[in-house]
Specification:
Rossmann fold, seven-stranded mixed sheet, 219 residues, alpha/beta, globular, binds 5-O-phosphono-beta-D-ribofuranosylamine
């Protein structure tokens, strides 16, 4: 199977979602490959993951630029030079400006650790615990100018348990992120998506016939 989609992955830290994408791309039937990893942090652990996987990586530090536009432009140039088809934000902790977002419109995706449109921004698990929701999860979406607000591609839900802390909840959600991100990118690579009026329509959708996730339940 030919790998028809070249991914550029932007990270700032641990890079566990990058690792999930590396693992998926290592499968010969997976229709995408990672051509470039960019971090804005020199010490991002994800850089080591890219190195180990023999993927080209670079650090473009925001501290080397006087303004956001120049930083964004530098990232764009590196992505264009690498022939990237789809930019994947994976724990990238800088907000990209509107010029960048518009240039990569429909070619820029993000994974967010909540069921959007709930709990945008940072500290999503603490937001979920404070709101007292019984179910939370993660979302892969196209990026638009407004933060955490683009067309939703896929979501996974997990229960919030009675004794959950931010850490335990983050762990449960992150496990699902690692399944969801490769799945969403595979849908894009296989041309299964269309965006109509800012809503993602998926062709050949296999409806998941599993029971609903109910939380809490009686013992
Ligand atoms: C993930 O929870 C992701 O949803 C959020 O930042 C975290 C990054 O984790 N945007 P990692 O660097 O991929 O391990």
């Amino acid at each position: 199977m030919t790998k028809n989609l070249k991914l550029g992955v932007l990270i700032s830290g641990e890079g566990s979602n990058l690792q999930a994408l590396i693992n998926a791309c290592n499968n010969s039937n997976y229709p995408a490959l990672i051509s470039l990893v960019i971090s804005n942090q020199h010490d991002a652990k994800g850089l080591e993951r890219a190195r180990k996987a023999n993927i080209k990586y670079m650090v473009i530090s925001h501290t080397n630029f006087n303004n956001r536009d120049d930083f964004d432009k530098n990232i764009s140039t590196a992505l264009l030079e690498a022939g990237i088809d789809l930019v994947c934000l994976a724990g990238f902790m800088r907000i990209l400006g509107s010029t960048f977002v518009d240039l990569w419109k429909d070619k820029l995706v993000n994974i967010h650790p909540s069921l959007l449109p709930s709990f945008k921004g940072l500290n999503t698990h603490s937001q979920a615990l404070r709101a007292g929701v019984c179910i939370t999860g993660c979302t892969v979406h196209f990026v638009r100018r407004e933060l955490d607000n683009g067309p939703i591609i896929a979501q996974a839900a997990v229960p919030v348990l009675r004794n959950d802390t931010e850490e335990s909840l983050a762990k449960r959600v992150l496990e699902q992120e690692h399944h969801l991100y490769p799945l969403a990118i595979e849908l894009i690579a296989r041309n299964k998506l269309q965006i109509v009026d800012n809503i993602v329509k998926i062709s050949d959708l296999v409806t998941n016939q599993q029971d609903a996730l109910v939380s809490p339940t009686l013992k």
